Amino acid sequence: NIWSSYGVESEGVFIAYASVYGNTRKAADMLASKLADKGVHVTVSDLARDDWAECLEDAFRYGKLVLAAPTYNADVFPAMKEFINHLTERNYQNRTVAFIENGSWAPMAAKVMTKMLEGSKNLTYAATTVTVRGVLNADSEAQIAALADELSK
Fold it and tell me: Is pTM, for the whole model, over 0.85?
């Protein structure tokens, strides 16, 4: 019944990331650490290296999903793009979604990912979107802290 109604199996947050130079991974890991410090169950996966069947399972298992990816050619990094396609092909719905985007001069990943998910039903988007401009700095770290606060409620 949970699967057929797209219900949440477990409380927690699944963070799926794709990283080119490791900076998006650092942002995802920082968010995971802050959430864990707040007592939130967190699972983190690297979409370029981990088993996608497990990643999809975790995206549907938990009620909250964080998609973290760099902007790539004014689009989103290919591993993340394909992962979102797999989600939407399986009618991903009834979840809270948050974004971490990375881009030095024109970050677009959050906008692209949101557009890709627009046909999904009953998604709630986090008010906080983390924008990393190449590497973590005080601004992006503050955004990560704000997102951790938001997702831990």
Answer: yes
Indicate the residue type of 37: D
Q: CA distances (Å), 129 to each of 47, 50, 68, 79, 100, in order?
A: 20, 24, 10, 20, 6
Reduced 3-state DSSP string for 69-138: EEEECCEECHHHHHHHHHHHHCCCCCEEEEEEEECCCCCCHHHHHHHHCCCCCCEEEEEEEEEEECECCH
Amino acid at 148: A
Q: Helix, strand, coil shares of the chain as percentages rounded to 5?
A: 40, 30, 30
CB atoms closer than 10 angstroms to residue 152: 15
**pLDDT digits 0-9 by tens, 11-39:** 999 999 999 999 999 999 999 999 999 99
Judge whether 111 and 139 are in contact, CB under 8 Å.
no
